[in-house]
Amino acid sequence: MFGRSRSSDLHVVVLRDAEAVAEAVRRALDGATPEERPGLERAAALVEEAAAASGAELRARWVAERMAEAGIESGYDSVAAIKALRGAAPGLGLLQAVQLAKEAEAVRSSK
Prior knowledge:
By secondary structure, this protein is mainly alpha-helical. Helices cover 63% and strands 4% of the residues. Strands 1-2 form a two-stranded antiparallel ribbon. Helix 3 crosses helix 4 (79-88), helix 3 (55-70) crosses helix 5 (94-109) and helix 4 packs across helix 5 (94-109). It is elongated and about 55 Å long.
């Protein structure tokens, strides 16, 4: 998920498999019984919602999950938060961790 470079740029690859999941749900809907249909329709809507998330939102979600695991509820830019991020992804550099934390805080503040 993370890469190192000599420049100060943040290189994060966001992997998405929502299209494959959406296709599987659509196939299941095609052969669904009337009882299964409402649940599969709801699943299809959830997959569409997940597929619409931006890269920044996905990175912010990853940061929020790491913060929750570390018991950090606020202050994503704190020393403890940055340490937690770097512990969760050992190849993550200090600058990258700070950039991820700032981006996650911005996404969180915009909601």
